[in-house]
Amino acid sequence: MRKFALRIILFCLVPLLLLIPLSMIVDKGLQKSHHFFFAEWNDLFAGHIQADMLFMGSSRAWVHFSPEIFDSAYQLNSYNLGLDGTTLDMQLERLHIYMRYNRKPRYIIQEVGLNTVIARQRELPQYAQLLPYLSDTAIWRIYKQQYENASLAERYFPLFKYNNQFPLIKEGLLSFAGHGVAATKYKGYRGQLLSWDNSFSNFVRDNPKGYALKIDSQAIDIFKDYLKWCREQDITIMLVYAPYYYEADHYITNISELKKLISGIAAENNVPYLDYTHNYLDSSKRYFYNSQHLNKEGSEILSRMVVRDITPYISPAEQ
After folding, report:
1. Could you give the domains of the chain?
2. Which helix (H) or strand (E) holds 80?
3. Which residues pair with 241 in a beta bridge?
4. pLDDT digits (tens, 9 = 90+) for 26-50
5. Which helix (H) or strand (E) holds 33?
6. Following DSSP, what letter does each residue of 154-212 receive, concatenated?
């Protein structure tokens, strides 16, 4: 009986002893990978960013603001922390984690728009981006909030969180050995070499009369608290409403209310607000790859516009 029990123990223990170091290697590899999911998180946790200026927002931040253009215009170091598919609360979670490992920025360029005022984040897209960091208390809290089915096994049982994620396991192993994928973004930014797609036509087909955006009071409170926090931290925050294709105006039936709300909050808090939603960019599909996102040509034009317009708020020593 003892021999049988010993065999059972060894049968369970030996694979576990192999899985533990393998899991650690995959985590460590992904934590230094240039993979699209992990590059910015890795820079953040490693304390490699140390930005004077941060770009915050959703995908309309990371595809719209080029740090290279801002760095060449000013004597400062900028970095784009735009996070795909997120509302403001999740963007702020990332900002606060940034502050644990990197110096406080002097400036924040915050992309504003639909995602600023809608209900709090649920189901973060590309959940795999959090997996190598589940041992971090803040990331684990976020992960549990985002995914109702999160289990302790994902945090503590080796490799369980990478179940069916074989490409990520492969990238972790290769990156650990110094042979991971090449970087595809520059300081969090990636201009999109894409032409106009069919997503807007599909949206119009499915919503011929448009819809009213549901503005969430809790999101508004988060927004106001954020501006107050920046003031208390002595961070100059500037709000930027990036262009969208002009025809989209007809399908968000309360878009004027949304813009008035954001501009009003900015005025109340004495925060610069730059609205680029009605300039020449928004009238041509040439500059967009869908109704909400500029392509590389459009984003670089926008970046230069913002550089020009924020100059009064930048210290003369950094100009």
Report:
1. 53-158+188-318 (3.40.50.1110)
2. strand 78-80
3. 275
4. 999 999 999 999 999 999 999 999 9
5. none
6. HHHSTTGGGTT-HHHHHHHHHHHTT--PPP-SBTTB--------SHHHHHHHH-TT-B-
